């Protein structure tokens, strides 16, 4: 096991045993993350849905199929990137996450970022975008996703620089081909900066 694998295993064990918020009582499986531990691109969604809660795999339902299609459209496979969420446990009935839950959970995402050291974070949807921008003290930059999508926010971190790229959540493209086209356009930015 590489050092990164070991550190991610440690995070995984912490999440499995986590009781820091009440979602630990209602979830089936926590959804920690999936993909390449050395990925240059990390995707962060909101929270697990019903399918993810059953399998422990992020983005494995309808939104996940769209995410896979978008990755394929820029020549990437799911295995080439790392995929996770802000919240590791599913909110019952997919209700919105609560502030106290995010506060309790965000340290796991922070640790994942520190270990994986991505160059790019693709933040999926309003919710992930605003929490990630807040985390990097960019509160004053937060707008609606339609205004922010496809922009690049550069932030300095302990291991260099990360480009945060706000994107629409793949779920918006489920019944809307125009939205899928917009997402495909925005994913081209990820391709451009992959590895840079
Ligand atoms: N939506 C998300 O934001 N995350 C998932 O893992 C699945 C659906
Ligand atoms: Fe712990 Fe996060 Fe799950 Fe809450 S959502 S129990 S903080 S892992």
The CATH C-level class name = Alpha Beta
Which spans have pLDDT < 50 for at least 5 consecutive residues? none
**Which molecules are bound in this entry?**
uracil, iron/sulfur cluster
Helical proportion, percent range: 40-55%
Element-level helix/strand string: HHEEHHEHEHHEEH
* Total individual domains: 1
Strands, total number: 6
Q: What is the average of the pLDDT values?
A: 96
Strand-pairing-aware structural class: alpha/beta
Radius of gyration: 16 Å
Strand order of the largest sheet: 1-3-2-4-6-5
Q: Tell me the β content.
A: 5-15%
Report the CATH superfamily. Answer: Uracil-DNA glycosylase-like domain
Biggest sheet overview: 6 strands, mixed
What's the total helix number?
A: 8
What form results from the Cα inertia axes?
Answer: globular
CATH fold group: Uracil-DNA Glycosylase, subunit E
Distance between the termini: 27 Å
Question: What would your notes on this structure say?
Answer:
- This protein is an alpha/beta fold.
- It has a single domain (3-194), classed as Uracil-DNA Glycosylase, subunit E (3-Layer(aba) Sandwich).
- 44% of the residues lie in helices and 15% in strands.
- The chain has eight helices and six strands; from the N terminus they run H-H-E-E-H-H-E-H-E-H-H-E-E-H.
- Strands 1-3-2-4-6-5 form a six-stranded mixed beta sheet, with helices on both faces.
- The mean pLDDT is 96.
- The chain binds uracil and iron/sulfur cluster.
- The site of iron/sulfur cluster (SF4) has 14 residues, from helix 2 and helix 5.
Secondary structure: elements and pairs:
Layout: H1 3-16, H2 23-26, E1 34-35, E2 41-45, H3 50-55, H4 62-73, E3 82-85, H5 99-116, E4 120-124, H6 125-135, H7 145-148, E5 153-157, E6 160-167, H8 177-193
Parallel strand pairs: 2-3, 2-4, 4-6
Antiparallel strand pairs: 1-3, 5-6
Helix pairs in contact: 1-5, 4-8
Residues 31, 45-49, 52, 58-59, 63, 85 line the site of uracil.
